Structures are given as structure tokens and as C-alpha cells.
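Support request from a user on the community tier.

User writes: "When I paste my C-alpha cells into the form, the page sometimes reloads and wipes my input. The last time it worked, I copied everything first. Here is what I submitted, just in case something in the input itself triggers the reload:"
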């Protein structure tokens, strides 16, 4: 049997049942992230009026109408919860359950093609919001339900394999972190300023046109905004470390440059390693990626409306510096972890 095209709205029904009786408390509040899973909200929920919060039970699809193009839709299987009144909640109708496997539909929603369709339908709106009528108008090419179930079985098997792989990743990271903590206990610590220095080369001739930024995940990325004026930007050479001097709480944007030379905004500082310093760049980056370094820079930063981290303050951060071979071993473990994380 081939595919049939269905209008989704003919097989789903919206739910607006809310928590007006205050039967459910803040412990049941969740949101939906861009990974398509339910997550505890980061904001403070003290004193929040829970009456308008929508009740979600197993079998519900929940999505953020202003972030659907980013993948913010989830399928509930973990029991009752409540979500913000801004979310859309819907269920398959009895007729819908006969021809649509809910997990297959969730997989369909999570595809990048669906996100692009949402973005296309939202194009031109000042505040794109994919409401329930928009969702209802979606046309889906639907295989028969037995074929859907086979896709779901494959998907679930892949998820289980991935979870097993992730557990191995956690073990590998634990080894790396334990090794580092053991070094701190056994070796004296030295300020990193004895091994590196500030680097301030400008792109005055416009030779380099590859512009980059750094995110809080410690990676170089394409900047969200650029004015195509590459002159006067700071140059980051391969093997150097750059960081954003303006802080986002403890989430410092810092990364080791392993790709080709690039330029960054002048709000960044660049660090170069002293000749024959004996400090491996990847080893230092291990320390700069730790949460404790984030706490240090937040403490060492200066400012009022915005916090800024001066190089002189960063240079006072202390780490244990073992011999080259020990550093190399730790970096090797960490590189394996990163490679497997990318595979995952």
C-alpha cells in the first residue's frame, strides 16, 4: 500500500484544560526544549500563578508556537505534568489513533524538513507563531500503520543504542575529570600567565576574511551578525586560544583554535603560548572548559552593568602543570571523548 496524504487537523484535537483548581504544583512544571524533550524550566517559579497552566497527560503533543521551527515539540509518555498557557497541547482523536502511530508522528515532527516547512509558513510575520490552525493545515504523506510501527521500532532501537553509547561517554569523561582532580591534589599549581601571553595582531590589511565567534560550548562558530568589514579585527592563529571578555555570568565563551586562521570581534582577547612553555594548548583548554574556571572568571571580572574579564586577571588562574608526557596522555583521553561525542 502506498502513501496517502492527510490533513493533520482531521485527526487531532486541541486541549485547553488548565490547572484552574490548583490541583498541581510547581514540581510538575516542565517546558519543551529544542531537542524535543520535556525539561524543568530554568526560571524562578516562586509565586507563579499556576491556574492558567495547561494540564498534559500521556499521549499529548506539546509545542512552543514561537519556537516550533527550532524543533520545540515533544510527545508525553512520562506521566502528568503542567506547561505554560503559551504552549499548544493536542492529542490524536480516536479516528487518528486508528491510522497514525503517535511515535511515528513525533519522529515526523522532529525532522529538519518539518522545521523548514514551519519556517516557510511563518515567513513574513513580525512575530512568527505557529498556532493550532497552522498545525491543523499541515498535509502529511502517511504510510499504513504497520509500516509506521516498523519505523518506530528502528527509531527506538537507535535511541537505546545511543543511550548505551552515552553511558560509555560519561564513563570516559569521569576518567578524564578524575585524572585532572588527582593532579590538583598531587602537584603544586602555577599561574597560567607564566606559560602564555596576550596576543594582539590586527587584520589591518584585510587579508583574513574568515570571521568567527565563540559560543559558551567552547567552540568557534559563524557569527550571527556581521558587517563585512574585516579590517582592524583581531586575528586568531591556529593553536591560539581566544575568549570573549564580556561575560555571560559564569558561561565564558573560550575556545582553542584548531582550524585555519580567522578574525574575531575586538571584544575578544587572544592568548598565545610562550615558546618552549612546556604547556600543551589542549591541556590548558581542558582546564578552561571546567565549571570551576567559569566561577573563577566571574569572581575575577570587573564592571557594573556588564562584567568584563581582563587578561591580567585571567593570567592569575592557577593549574597544575605535569610533565609533557602526562599532559599528552590526558589530552589523548579527552580527544577520544570529543571524537565519540561528535559521533554520538
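"...and here is what came back when it finally went through:"
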Amino acid at each position: 500500500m502506498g502513501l496517502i496524504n492527510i490533513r493533520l487537523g482531521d485527526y487531532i484535537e486541541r486541549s485547553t484544560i488548565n490547572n484552574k483548581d490548583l490541583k498541581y504544583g510547581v514540581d510538575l512544571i516542565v517546558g519543551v526544549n529544542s531537542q524535543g524533550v520535556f525539561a524543568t524550566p530554568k526560571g524562578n517559579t516562586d509565586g507563579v500563578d499556576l491556574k492558567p497552566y495547561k494540564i498534559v497527560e500521556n499521549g499529548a503533543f506539546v509545542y512552543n508556537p514561537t519556537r516550533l521551527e527550532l524543533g520545540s515539540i515533544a510527545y508525553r509518555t512520562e506521566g502528568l505534568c503542567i506547561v505554560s498557557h503559551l504552549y499548544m497541547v493536542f492529542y490524536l482523536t480516536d479516528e487518528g489513533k486508528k491510522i497514525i502511530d503517535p511515535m511515528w508522528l513525533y519522529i515526523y515532527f522532529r525532522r529538519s524538513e518539518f522545521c523548514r516547512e514551519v519556517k516557510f509558513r511563518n515567513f513574513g510575520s513580525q512575530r512568527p507563531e505557529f498556532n493550532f490552525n497552522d498545525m491543523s493545515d499541515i498535509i502529511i504523506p502517511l504510510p499504513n500503520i504497520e509500516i509506521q510501527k516498523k519505523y518506530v521500532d528502528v527509531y527506538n532501537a537507535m535511541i537505546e543504542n545511543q543511550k548505551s553509547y552515552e553511558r560509555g561517554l560519561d564513563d570516559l569523561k569521569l576518567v578524564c575529570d578524575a585524572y585532572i582532580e588527582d593532579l590538583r591534589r598531587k602537584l603544586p599549581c602555577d599561574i597560567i600567565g607564566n606559560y602564555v601571553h596576550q596576543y594582539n595582531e590586527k587584520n589591518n590589511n584585510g587579508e583574513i576574511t574568515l570571521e568567527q565567534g565563540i559560543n559558551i560550548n567552547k567552540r568557534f562558530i559563524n557569527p550571527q551578525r556581521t558587517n563585512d568589514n574585516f579590517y582592524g579585527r583581531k586575528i586568531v592563529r591556529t593553536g591560539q586560544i581566544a575568549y570573549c571578555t564580556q561575560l555571560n555570568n559564569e558561561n565564558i565563551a573560550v575556545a582553542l583554535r584548531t582550524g585555519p586562521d580567522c578574525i574575531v570581534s575586538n571584544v575578544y582577547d587572544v592568548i598565545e603560548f610562550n615558546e618552549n612553555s612546556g604547556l600543551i594548548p589542549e591541556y590548558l583548554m581542558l582546564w578552561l572548559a571546567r565549571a570551576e574556571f567559569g566561577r573563577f572568571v566571574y569572581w575575577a571580572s570587573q564592571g557594573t552593568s556588564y562584567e568584563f574579564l581582563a587578561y591580567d586577571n585571567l593570567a592569575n588562574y592557577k593549574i597544575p602543570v605535569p610533565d609533557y608526557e602526562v599532559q599528552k596522555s590526558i589530552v589523548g583521553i579527552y580527544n577520544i571523548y570529543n571524537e565519540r561525542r561528535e559521533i554520538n
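Agent notes: The reload is a front-end session timeout and is unrelated to the input. Residues 145-186 form the longest helix (42 residues). The chain has two domains: 4-143, 188-321. Escalated to web team.
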